[in-house]
Amino acid sequence: MMALWPRWVVFAAVVGAAASGLAAQAEPVAAQTTVLNTDSYWRMFLTHRKTVARTAEGQLEETRFSRTWGGCLVSGVSTPLPPDGWNGADFDDSTWKRTRGPLLSPPGKGYEELVFSTMALICARARFEVTDPQSVGDLTLSLAYRGGVVAYLNGKEVARGHLPDPDKKGLEALAEDCSIETFETVDGKPLLEEHRKDPQNAERLDKRVRHLTGIKIPAASLRRGTNVLALELHRSAYPAGKKQDALRWVPIGLVDVELRATGSGIVPNVGRPKGVQVWSHSPSDRVLLTRDYGSAEDPGLRVVKVFGARNGAFPGQIVVSSTEAIRGLKVEPSELKGPGILPAKAIQVRYPRSDSEAGGLRIFQFYQRVKSFDTLDETAPAEVAVPENAEGVAQPIWLTVHVPRDAKPGHYTGTVTVTVDGAAPVRMPLELRVADWTLPEPKDFQTEVGFFESPESVAMKYGLEFWSEQHWQMLDKVFAMMALVGADHVYIPLIRRTHFGNAQSMVRWIRTEGGGYAHDFSIVEKYLDLAIKHLGKPKVVCVVAWDLSDGSRYEATPDPKKWRMPDHGVRITVLDPNSGKLEEAEGPKYGTPEARPFWKPVYDGLVKIMKDRDLDLSTLMNGIVGDCVPNQEIWDDLHAVAPGLKWVSHNHPGARWVLYDKKREEWCGHAAYVYTPAVIDPDEKRFYGWQATKMRLCAFPRWVFDWSCPATYRVLLEENLVVGLMGVARTGFDFWQVIPHAGKAFGRGTLCNRYPENDWTQTSVCAGAAQWVTPGQDGPLSTMRMEMFRSGAQECEARILIEKALVDPATRAKLGEDLATRAQQLLDQRQRLIAILRDESFWSLPGLRWEEDSGELYRLAAEVAKKLAD
């Protein structure tokens, strides 16, 4: 989760100690200027390996890091080494991660080291320009680092520290071991940064950082034009006798670096340049409001590259940064020319905002304060002001290229002209590569997407009367947004005051003479019709006639102390058809003689609605089993009035596998796990989520938040496919902040958990993302996260097509061994990368060519489809 932390805060303790050490040890050199430092922009490539530990006998052994965070196990995988020649001045690193240092995971409470424990090698490159080599004197390099390091200037080794490499293992070599005292306090406990207040422990913390200072580099190593300082950082092994779950830091990383030189013929690459910069930026990567800027020396910033296929929408991103306020921003795309012509209108231009609402988890408010971007506004901002005490500001420009179904495959080129007041227009080249394959319509996507839509949130946010014509028009726009990623579920509360926070039930009871009820199903019918219009036939229609306060047991325990008995009847909404007035009322409690006659006509009416729309009755389900389950009486009553109706289950694994003497496959029609299984190395096992259709198994993406990095959302669906799940479910789509903050940890400010008696706490709908879209003036606006999820859904369709061909011996034979091998290698590479992209740790995503690899994925899908059609 480290990408969220401001680097200058996170590393203050480590960097401060290291920097002071550098200053104290380095010999002063007259008239030297800093050419590169830690805060310069670096291009970075990570290589991951299984964690390596030293045994008591001094031998090395590979081990898996076993500690979990957010339900995710880290399973050791191996990712590629950088290409040969990576440290040379002319190497193309445009697909590597672009970041500013330090390059290591931060100190803290421990979980933040989760993914980084598998880091084995960090390769980093930074550029600077030399206009006149003859006028430059010798250079001085100083480094502070964890593990070991090799430094190169223009491909030639100039320094090495704590990396003897007697066995000539090169990039696979281990650095010298760290002392045991860098891992534990003076009294043998895991050493944390918080122990720095103790002088003895502070000394141990400081020993984690190693130093090379005052390294002289001859000026003859320089060349006219672009020069590159490359750093190769190696890990140390963990010490013997330590449990991996007790290790709270990773012995690899760059803490501080400074390259200094004399003379006027060298151009420093330090700090934000004056004026306006325009550059391309990976859409998977976060942009920070005041932190990020463009640098002229990096050629990878000069072209926007987009990869896709027919009938899809594909992202690109440009960023404008400036040391002054950005005014008069105007963006004009040209048509794209290639095998055919795509008109300029095929390029949708939107402007990310940094003021998104952030519902969700109160305990992580610190992360929410980080000023990155999310909401995609259709209108350019009138002004992007430089915040107080900031050196500049950035404004992204989000491009979505819509490729029509009849587009000709091939390479297209065009430009995007960016104009800002006070600066010359910038014509940014835009390249589009279209594969010869056609994506299905989103409603036909094979992944599972179970959004919770909150109609009452929509009405309250826009000040609309519930179920008025204006409300339905706004819901039409909401469902149109849900359709972009192939949403599949519809949730219909039959009672009020559920954990969704709904004040009304969708079915309206109408009192009749004699004390009975008739029923108004018009809202249910209209709501379901709206869903079908945009989503197609839903895969799950979940009706909610029960919640915790209606009678529940924790994990179906037989212990009466853990039963919750109701103090009220089922809460319903009663309609007076003459006046139109609504009344809050209660029906009979479950387990009473009146319960089944009360519910039987409701379920009969729901079945008729399903049949009238030719919907599969197996998709109609009761909901929702959680960590707490309905009491036996509720279970019996609902199965009596609707025999065969299965349940939706959103919970931790546990006693619910067998519920009231029924095995899971007998009662569960759709399940979403809180804990997603670990993504493992495909050499050990490959899973295929699209095969998990029996119970529509999905992941509940808890700990994926409204403010999580866009990269997290891009791989979210594919991550679940490769562990054997169909997709994601139980995530709020439009749970906007519409009520005063109630101080709750989960769902704060949203309708989620609005009613205390039905608070699902850590398994709430808003225990992860509360919203995927943002309320705009005239309707919901998409977000960067939503667009990344959309990209991931499209990529999953290509993956599924290829996987289905590979697992069937007959179709694999049609592909031929060459195509089958290439396809499997790419899928395996993506799986290994996804295995280390848990939580917010996405350093490697651009560094392993994710954009280009997605283009290759589409190209391979085209090859596979053609072979199968022959």
Kindly describe this structure.
This protein is of the alpha+beta class. Helix content is 21%, strand content 28%. It is built from 17 helices and 47 strands. It is globular and about 105 Å long. The model is unreliable at 1-29, 66-74, 106-115, 358-369 and 839-846 (pLDDT under 50).
Provide mean pLDDT, rounded. Answer: 88
Strands, count: 47
Residues in β-strands, percent:
25-35%
The low-confidence runs, each spanning 5 or more residues with pLDDT under 50, are 1-29, 66-74, 106-115, 358-369, 839-846
Globally, the shape reads globular
Number of helices: 17
Biggest sheet descriptor: 7 strands, antiparallel
- Terminal-residue CA separation: 47 Å
Rg over CA atoms: 29 Å
**What class would the helix/strand composition place it in?**
alpha+beta
Q: What oligomeric state is this?
A: single chain
Helix content: 10-25%
